[in-house]
Amino acid sequence: MNEDIFSQVDHYISDLLAPEDKALTDTIQSIHNENMPQISVSANHGKFLQVLMRSCKAKRVLELGTLAGYSTIWMARALPEDGKLITLEVDKHHAEVARKNIENAGLSKKVEIRIGKAIELLPDLIAQTKQPFDFIFIDADKPPYAAYFDYALKLSKPGTLIVCDNVIREGKVLDRNTTDEKVKGVQKLNESLRDNKSVTATILQTVGAKEHDGMVIALVNNID
Ligand code: SAH
Ligand code: DHB
Ligand code: MG
Question: In the structure, what pLDDT confidence band is assigned to residue 135 with cuts at 50, 70 and 90?
Answer without folding.
Answer: very high
